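Hello,

Our lab assistant flagged a job as stuck in the queue for most of the afternoon. It eventually completed. Since we weren't sure the result was trustworthy after the delay, we are filing this so someone can double-check. Below is the sequence as submitted and the structure that was eventually returned. Let us know if re-running is recommended.
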Amino acid sequence: METVDHINVNVDDLESCYAFYRDALGLEVVRDPDDFQGEHAMFRAGETVVTLVETGRGERWDERGLDHPLDKAHLAFETDRDEYESLMDELDDQFPNQGPYDWDEFEGFYFLDPSGNLLEVITYEPPTGEQERSLLTHDDVE
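-- returned structure --
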């Protein structure tokens, strides 16, 4: 395997998720919902295509699931430090232990899309100046 070509994400509400991935995450729209027969939207994140499919999600997060976002299936997006900080400010307080996390070579922050899919944004760029938020590690979450 050389790369991930595409990822399909099941969503409950395509309209709200389409706006979220387009506007909040700033993904490039490849095909909007009007271009499909059925409830789909297609984006590009770097070289990877991300397709939203309105099929609903089979699982629901319980309290323990939200307290412990690590080691769960998720989609991670890489961005620069400024966008990373902006997304943390915008999407903080969705659930405990969102981050940021110190993953040695990069930092990561977890959040949910409008359908409850677990996402992460990461940056390889170090902070400029003093870190406003303390960094969590895998060991900080039980």
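-- support follow-up --
The delay was a queue issue, not a problem with the job. The result is valid. The mean pLDDT is 84. Strands lie at 6-11, 28-31, 40-45, 48-54, 75-78, 101-102, 107-112, 118-123.
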